[in-house]
Design brief:
The protein is α/β, with parallel strands linked by helices and about 600 residues long. The protein has 3 domains: about 5-245, Aminohydrolase, N-terminal nucleophile (Ntn) domain (Glutamine Phosphoribosylpyrophosphate, subunit 1, domain 1), CATH 3.60.20.10; about 250-445, Rossmann fold, CATH 3.40.50.10490; about 450-590, Rossmann fold (3-Layer(aba) Sandwich), CATH 3.40.50.10490. The strands form 5 sheets. It has an 8-stranded antiparallel sheet, with helices on one face. Helix 4 packs across helix 5 (about 140-150) and helix 13 (about 400-420) packs antiparallel against helix 14 (about 425-450). Bound molecules: 5-amino-5-deoxy-1-O-phosphono-D-mannitol. The site of 5-amino-5-deoxy-1-O-phosphono-D-mannitol has 17 residues, from helix 9 and helix 16.
Length: about 600
Amino acid sequence: MCGIVGYCGKKNATDIIIHGLKNLEYRGYDSAGISVITKDSIKTIKSVGKLDKLEEVYKSNPIKGNVGIGHTRWATHGNVNLENAHPHLNSKNTISLVHNGVIDNYLELKEELEKEGYKFKSKTDTEVIVQLIDFYYNGNLLNAVLKTVKRLVGSYALGVVCNDNPSELIAVRNNCPLIVGFAEDGFIISSEISSIIENTNKVVYMDNKEIAQFNLNNTYKFFNYNLDEIEKEIETMDLNKDSISKNGFEHYMLKEIFEQPDAIRNLLDKRVINGKINLGESFFTAEEIKEFEKIYIIACGTAFHAGEIAKFAIQNFTGRQVQVEIASEFNYNQKFVDDKTLAIFVSQSGETADTLLALEEAKKLSAKTLAIVNAQNSTMTKQADKVMYCYCGPEISVASTKAFTTQLILLYLLALDMAEKLGTLSEDKIKSYLDELKTIPERISEILERKDNFRNIAEELKNQESVFYTGRGIDFTTAKEGALKLKEVSYIHTEAFASGELKHGSIALIDDSTKVIAIISQEHTAKKTAINLEELTARGASIYTITDFDDNTIKQNSKEVIKFARTTDFFAPLLSVIPAQLIAYYTSLARGNDVDKPRNLAKAVTVE
Ligand code: M6R
């Protein structure tokens, strides 16, 4: 998705901005550009494709200046080309702007400006913003930007510079993240912490409808849209350069898979204190939980799978029915949401547009909202009534791994906390579940030690056109996650089938070239799924079975059995997903793909 970086300070802005944009690369983009204020004018360079191309342009045409803005664009309005790439400038080339977000009323504004004689070079909504600033500009950039943003409907984070005010950088936020870093040499604005952390750990998270003005003389001001000056607290981040480095791993995906034992351990240490679940003092009280008549979990992609898995635990522990919905579908479904509904939103980034819209919708219907999020201070955390953080550190690889397992941990803790408050599980039972969760990190490490085994499996899968996943109940939902992981990084067609559904159609696809990955971890379904394996091998399929059972039918029907330590059925996905993550990683590697930045994907999907 689009990313913004801006700089106003003593160093060369171009270097800081290009380096910052590189740290945003993983979000996904298809063109990039920068504008820097030089002695005589605003100099802008753009390129289509990777940032290396922008660097080549820069090397043959060095730009020096202390104030500038940069952008990586993931096309929404208009094709991928230089005209549509940011920054966008007014026709006099005196004002330059970068934008993250979507302007809903840009066509009306464009028509209005065209009537005033404005001409447009691009097909973007962004060019309308800069032309509108030009329209309002009478020597005061801050005022012109303010008048402009008041006319915009939609989401935006903006960085603006102007030739007439060469020492000034303006930043605005509304429903798109924008963070300000306070370095010794100056100010950095960015969509993300990752392009700030190498310069400073002192930051301000801008809130919606805030506008900031930074000056080369090292002064800054934050305002609301009434131009009242506001005090912002400068926070010190608990992160360092290592949090965004690969730390010796070849890819972020592998590093993040390996971080899971520690991430889960840390999270449990934070949330289970002296053997008791502690979700924070301001968490839902027993009275509030008793009031909930309906529970929804709403999310996208991997976060949705975490919700689907957690549904089994919440329902079983609390006796309450749970409805899990894909955020992008939520708005079209008939909703049974009211003031007695708990709506849980799960998201690594906290910026996923579909999930944010569903949250907005649930709030309109008076639901009590809870966000389970990894990225601190992200938009979702500001909009939900309550927040639970995954605390697993920045997840940089597009394929979500450690966020998934930590989301699951939080959802299990939530299920247990609710059960305790509702009195549906005994104290002893809750304690035994917590003790079981504590064993998970060690058991994940045991699987990780066998990583070479997964490299071999990947070699056997890498030339397949299709690979199928199968399982029953909870295992089916983990299978869906395994299939998503494999397809997104390997580009092999992958689907997950509910084992019991195979006979109702999908088994027609099976022949002696088919490879299937089965997940069997549930006491009450293991036998049945093992019989489904027989049906598959009878049609020639080769099966790799991820299981915690020592079962002859499974062994006889599996080309390879991938064992993991037996745990409570509800928690088994925390272990069975690890082989699936590693198989996906090594298959992507074996196919020579860009593992961390798979084609066509973005890390945070900030458009619907
Ligand atoms: O940031 P979110 O958790 O809201 O993102 C949701 C999905 O876009 C995300 O999980 C996506 O499916 C990943 N690429 C999966 O690995």
